[in-house]
Amino acid sequence: MPEIFRKLITKKHSISLSSKNIVKVTSGTLVGQIISFATLPMLTRIYGASIMGIWAIIASLTFIIKAFSDLGIGNAIMVSNDEEVLDLYSVVSTISLVITILVSGLIFIYYSFFPSNEGLSAFWMALIIAVNSWTAKQVDICYAWLNRDKNYQVLMKNPIISQVSIFIFSVSLGLLGFKGFGYFIGSMAGSFFSLLNMKRYLPTRIFTIQVKKYKYVLHKNKNFIKYQMPSDLLGRIKDSLPTLLINFIFGSEAVGYYSLSMRMISTPVNLLGTSVGRVFFSDIAEKKRNGLDYWDDIHKTINTAFKICIIPLIFILAFGDVFTVILLGEGWYVAGQMLRIATIIGLFTFIMMSTLGIDIVLEKQSYTIIASVAQIINGIFSFFIVGKIFDSPYISLVFNCILTMVIQTVYYTALYKVMNKPIWMYLKNVLTNLIIIFFGSLIFRYIGIWLGIVDSII
Q: Which sequence spans correspond to the domains of the chain?
């Protein structure tokens, strides 16, 4: 009997601690998102859709490089033993720096022969992408280290530091007349100062030249190189492809509208999804290292994630266009319509972010690779083929949302089968949420017409 009580108390304490950690990280994310939203109207008015579209293109190339610059072994920090993690950290940091420099050289050569349509020289394109790529990768590595140590007190400050830095540098440089580089430098400043905040709590030995360490780390984590790197790379290509294809088909201004709509849909997603995901990954990775069962954590997190996102997504689908115009002005109406269409993407992105690392813990990165390939095909079909046929970014985005829903549903049902759990548990959540979000937004849209807030049901 005492043993039963001990287990119950331990379980209750674990749940309570996880909840506190989520609240702690979420509080920082909340403040960061408030700052982001409060400053967005000023930034859009200073720089406009074209400049933001150019940065979205640069960021897309940056994320692709960041995805393979560590060979996929940066994620191993979460699951490695304490005796090995320091060597892993220095090896990953060094490899990512070398690969970033090499790729940036190739970018310089490419843009020397094929100048950028965005008006940036080959030197500046290569330099901006290099600095942004390595800084962003270091941010990821630091997050993994501090998340492993459950140092959420430090992590909670990052969104605030990042958004304040972006605002100060972007606005100051914009008002001084640097209409292009001002926004680029401001955006990079967010990552730079976040990195400074975290580096204080990490080992000072960032790099290493000891060959034996490379041999050991690369051999020990060969499965991460084999599965995680392709998974990360395809995932980033999948995320970046719409931006690059929209630029190719519709131009940088359309990219600006699209990137802003994705930024706005990511606000409620990032507000809680990122925080839940980091704590979730830390908890289930720790249980895996200790040989404990983690199904309850997965099941509870997915169920909770579906419930949390219903209300905000109903209002985004109902009034996303109205909200965008009020916040940013009439010139951003296109972004508002894209925001409404992207609601479905927001739902499945929230689930993905809330269950960060589930494929790594289940050792099914191959499933993520397959899903990413399917999303790449989705992107090519939706934004290139459909875009060419209909010449409408709206229709392209609709196709993309529908196919994303299908791909993500198949992906998670496959993971449920791996865990020997009935797939109807996941399908029920998907169907219930879609029905509630659709009909809920329809009701509010009709109320909006009655009140004169909107003109049409579409």
A: 12-451
